[in-house]
């Protein structure tokens, strides 16, 4: 069984972030996925549309139950986190970097996996190469489509040019990105890029709790490949 604890993490500009640590405890020592040096940092969907760390709770607890400590947090301006949310998510990149550095210092995380959901994916993607301990990146429904690119387009090159291993998970009926758009974006991407398509599933369906277990299994498989 995993345990959950609350903490406050300081980010850039004196912003304080409300966070949760889902810790894999000693009883999980026989887990095939257990790795005391690896921590998964989960980045929630778009703050402006009501995204918050609770949406990542199912995945975080599933990872912890499988032996991987996970951290969720409310980005600036969400819930008890101070500061103000930004439209394009660039201020929030500082939040991701701060949480990763905190995990490195306070959870002895020598390796960090960044996982971003929906608009959290471009934000996390922009942080990948800013943190040495990050060894891989998982995107759950990256909004690569034309409309979403008005807000998040300037994040794209940051993750696509990263040499670190990446996994892009998407439903084939995602309303923000078509399968063809995803394939085109990854065509010239640096490093190792894997995709996993979930047949007939929409963007917000995949974000729902019904798919948490599947997301956990995909993330664990990816960790095993690193």
From TrEMBL:
Domain KANL3/Tex30 alpha/beta hydrolase-like: 55-203
Alphabetized InterPro entries for the sequence: AB_hydrolase_fold, KANL3/Tex30_Abhydrolase
Pfam families: Abhydrolase_11 (PF20408)
Protein name: Alpha/beta-Hydrolases superfamily protein
Species whose genome carries this gene: Perilla frutescens var. hirtella
């Amino acid at each position: 069984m995993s345990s959950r604890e609350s903490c406050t993490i300081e980010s850039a500009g004196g912003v304080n972030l409300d966070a949760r640590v889902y810790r894999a405890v000693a009883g999980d020592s026989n887990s095939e996925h257990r790795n005391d040096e690896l921590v998964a940092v989960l980045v929630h969907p778009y703050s402006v549309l009501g995204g918050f760390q609770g949406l990542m709770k199912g995945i975080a607890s599933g990872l912890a139950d499988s032996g991987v400590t996970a951290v969720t947090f409310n980005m600036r301006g969400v819930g008890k986190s101070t500061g103000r949310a930004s439209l394009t998510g660039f201020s929030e990149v500082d939040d991701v970097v701060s949480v990763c550095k905190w995990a490195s210092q306070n959870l002895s995380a020598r390796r960090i996996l960044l996982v971003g959901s929906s608009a959290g994916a471009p934000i996390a993607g922009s942080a990948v190469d800013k943190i040495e301990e990050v060894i891989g990146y998982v995107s759950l429904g990256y909004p690569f489509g034309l409309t979403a690119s008005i807000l998040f387009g300037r994040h794209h090159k940051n993750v696509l040019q990263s040499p670190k291993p990446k996994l892009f998970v998407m439903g084939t009926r995602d309303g923000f990105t078509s399968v063809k758009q995803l394939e085109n974006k990854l065509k010239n991407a640096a490093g190792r890029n894997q995709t996993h398509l979930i047949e007939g599933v929409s963007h917000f369906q995949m974000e729902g709790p019904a798919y948490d277990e599947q997301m956990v299994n995909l993330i664990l498989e990816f960790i095993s490949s690193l």
